[in-house]
Amino acid sequence: MTDSSIPFARDPESGPPVSRGRLGALLWIACETMVFAGLVGTFILARFSAPMWPAPYMDGGVQVLPKKVGLLIPVVNAVVLTVATLYAMRASRAAREGNEAQVRAALKRVSLFGVAFLALVFAELKIEGDRGLSLQAGIYGSFIILITMVHAIHVLAGLVWHWVILRRPLTLPLGEVNRDRIEVVTLWWGYVTVVWYLLLGLLHFV
């Protein structure tokens, strides 16, 4: 019996339609999307259930109206993540061209912008904390801090991933750059950037 007579016969050297690394990253992103969907869904319910927003809360028997979080740092952070994603795309392009030096240089820049993002997040929380924002400051403060920190953890995960990659060889046994690994990293940074833009619109304009 020839291969042509076997249903769905495939060249064993052609590889799977989607690489294992990319498939794993897509499954991971799907799981993390469910986490964000749960947080966002709960926020929307709380937002539209409250008679006014930011919702007031009681502190020592006194009703307190929390101040709305500033928009400047979140917008700057959106730009920071966008630039990080562009550098990740540059790393992916360099990997396709087989230029390991450019891949490493681009990934290092992505890491720098990731660190800048986290620094700005903590600066924002410090500034807003001085203005009264905290987990005890009603549902508004709780959601702002919780959602922001969950996203920051995802950015930190991307940075840890980068450090692991940069400490290991980027080339395969035949000498070509491991494109799949770099493209998965690019996919992750694109994901956290898109999520940040969605959260920016949700938390500050809804």
Protein described:
This protein has 206 residues and is mainly α. It has one domain (20-205): Four Helix Bundle (Hemerythrin (Met), subunit A). It has helices at 20-49, 72-97, 100-130, 138-166, 179-205; strands spanning 57-59, 62-64. A hairpin with a 2-residue loop joins β1 and β2 (62-64).
Amino-to-carboxy terminus distance: 64 Å
Count of structural domains? 1
Number of helices: 5
Question: What is the H level of CATH, i.e. the homologous superfamily?
Answer: Cytochrome c oxidase, subunit III, four-helix bundle
Task: Produce the secondary structure layout.
Blueprint: H1 20-49, E1 57-59, E2 62-64, H2 72-97, H3 100-130, H4 138-166, H5 179-205
Antiparallel strand pairs: 1-2
Helix pairs in contact: 1-4, 1-5, 2-3, 2-5, 3-4, 4-5
Summarize the structure.
The chain contains five helices and two strands; from the N terminus they run αββαααα.
Which descriptors apply to this entry?
elongated, mainly alpha, disordered N terminus, about 210 residues, Four Helix Bundle (Hemerythrin (Met), subunit A)
